[in-house]
Design goal:
Elements lengths: L11 H8 L16 E2 L3 E4 L4 E4 L2 E2 L7 E4 L5 E5 L10 E9 L5 E9 L3 E9 L5 E6 L4 E8 L5 E8 L8 E6 L5 E7 L21 E4 L3 E6 L4 E6 L6 E4 L16 E9 L5 E8 L4 E10 L3 E4 L10 E5 L4 E7 L5 E8 L2
Antiparallel strand pairs: 1-25, 2-3, 3-5, 4-7, 5-6, 7-8, 8-9, 9-10, 11-12, 12-13, 13-14, 15-16, 16-17, 17-18, 19-20, 20-21, 21-22, 23-24, 24-25
C-alpha cells in the first residue's frame, strides 16, 4: 500500500538548487542534479515542481511549496489556515495551472474527529481564492489542471450515495464551480469502497489530461478509462497489473504494487511497479501498456538502473527520481521515450 509519509522537508534552499535544471535540461540523456530531502510528497509537472506534507498539524508552517523552472520558490501555502479550528490537514494531491494558480485536494480534521473534504484554489500570488466544501462524503484523490485553466478531479469515496449514482470524474471551472460529473462508480466495483484510509493495496490511482481526452486508471479494478472532454466517448479497458518476470514457483504468494501511473502522447499507459514476495522484490521497473500488446517492461538505455518515474508530461517526457546513496535523499532528472 502506498505509504503516507508524515515527515517534512526543511532544506528548501537545497531543494531549489536541485530543481534548478530539471525542467530545462536536454532530453537526450538524464541529467542528475543535486540531491534533496525526500521526506515530502513531490509532483513534477511540465512547468513547475511542487512538494507538500501529506499530513500536518502545524498551522504556521507552509504545507505546500512550488518551484519554477529555475528552481526558485514561487509559492508557499499554509493550507491548514484555510479552515478555522481545524487541528490537522491531509493533502491527497495538488496541481498547478499554466498561470501559477494552485489547486489542493485536502481533508481537514476538526475537534471531535470530524473530517471535512475541501477543494482549495489559490491565486498565483499565493492568496486563497476559493474554498469548496465537497459534501456528502465526497473526497478527491487526484487533481489535474487542463490547459484552459479548468480542473479535472478523480473522486474516491461516495458517501451515502449508491455507487450507481455516484460519479468518479469531475470537471470544475477555475473558481471550483462544477461543470460536469462523469463515469458512475459501479463500473469499477473493486474501487467503489474507497475510504479515507488510502488507496488500494495494489497501489495508487492515476489521472491525466491530453489535448482531447481525460484518462484515469484504478488499481483495484485494474482498469483504464478514457473519455472525451465533453463527456462523450467513454471507453474502459481492463489492463491487469504489470507483473514482469515471475519465478516458476510461488507466484501465488507474490504481490504487485503500482506507485506511479502516466500516459504518453501515443496513448500508451506507463506504470512504475514492483512485484514482491514476503522475502524479496522479484520484479521492478517501468512498464508500458498498449491496446495491442498489453504490458511490457520498458528497456531503454536512457533509464538509469534504479530510477523511478515521477510523471509523464503532456509533451512526452518522463520525469524521474533516483534515491541517492543516502536513502533519505533523492536525485531528479528527465528524459524522453520516443
Amino acid at each position: 500500500m502506498q505509504k503516507r509519509l508524515i515527515s517534512s522537508l526543511t532544506g528548501s534552499l537545497l531543494l531549489a538548487l536541485a530543481l534548478s535544471q530539471i525542467l530545462t535540461a536536454e532530453t537526450s540523456s538524464v541529467p542528475w542534479n543535486r540531491s534533496f530531502d525526500g521526506g515530502r510528497a513531490l509532483k513534477a509537472l511540465d512547468h513547475v515542481v511542487a512538494t507538500w506534507d501529506l499530513n500536518s498539524s502545524t498551522a504556521d508552517n507552509p504545507q505546500v511549496e512550488v518551484f519554477n523552472q529555475n528552481g526558485e520558490r514561487i509559492q508557499q501555502l499554509r493550507v491548514l489556515q484555510a479552515v478555522p479550528q481545524a487541528e490537522s490537514v491531509g493533502i491527497w494531491d495538488l496541481s498547478v495551472d499554466p498561470a501559477g494558480g494552485v489547486a489542493v485536494a485536502a481533508v481537514f480534521a476538526r475537534p471531535g474527529c470530524q473530517r471535512e473534504s475541501v477543494l482549495l484554489l489559490y491565486a498565483p500570488e499565493g492568496g486563497l481564492r476559493d474554498a469548496i466544501r465537497l459534501g456528502n462524503g465526497r473526497a478527491i484523490t487526484r487533481l489535474e489542471y487542463d490547459d484552459d485553466g479548468s480542473l479535472w478531479a478523480l473522486g474516491h469515496h461516495s458517501g451515502t450515495l449508491d455507487p450507481a449514482e455516484a460519479s468518479m470524474l469531475f470537471h470544475y471551472d477555475s473558481h471550483g464551480n462544477e461543470l460536469g460529473a462523469y463515469v458512475s462508480r459501479d463500473q469499477f466495483p473493486q474501487d467503489a469502497e474507497f475510504t479515507e484510509e488510502g488507496p488500494d493495496a495494489h497501489g495508487a490511482p492515476g489521472l491525466g489530461v491530453t489535448a482531447t481526452q481525460v484518462w484515469f486508471w484504478l488499481p483495484a479494478s485494474q482498469r483504464l478509462a478514457t473519455i472525451n472532454k465533453d463527456g462523450s466517448g467513454l471507453a474502459i479497458y481492463t489492463t491487469g497489473l504489470p507483473v514482469g518476470s515471475l519465478p516458476e514457483s510461488g507466484a501465488d504468494e507474490l504481490h504487485t504494487e503500482v506507485s506511479r501511473v502516466g500516459m504518453l502522447p501515443s496513448g500508451a499507459l506507463l506504470a512504475e511497479a514492483r512485484t514482491s514476495s514476503a522475502l524479496a522484490v522479484v520484479s521492478a521497473g517501468l512498464f508500458q501498456w498498449t491496446h495491442a500488446g498489453g504490458w511490457t517492461k520498458v528497456e531503454d538505455p536512457r533509464l538509469p538502473v534504479g530510477a523511478q518515474m515521477l510523471n509523464a508530461t503532456r509533451s512526452g517526457e518522463i520525469l524521474l527520481r533516483q534515491y541517492d546513496t543516502d536513502p533519505t535523499r533523492v536525485l531528479l532528472g528527465r528524459t524522453s521515450l520516443d
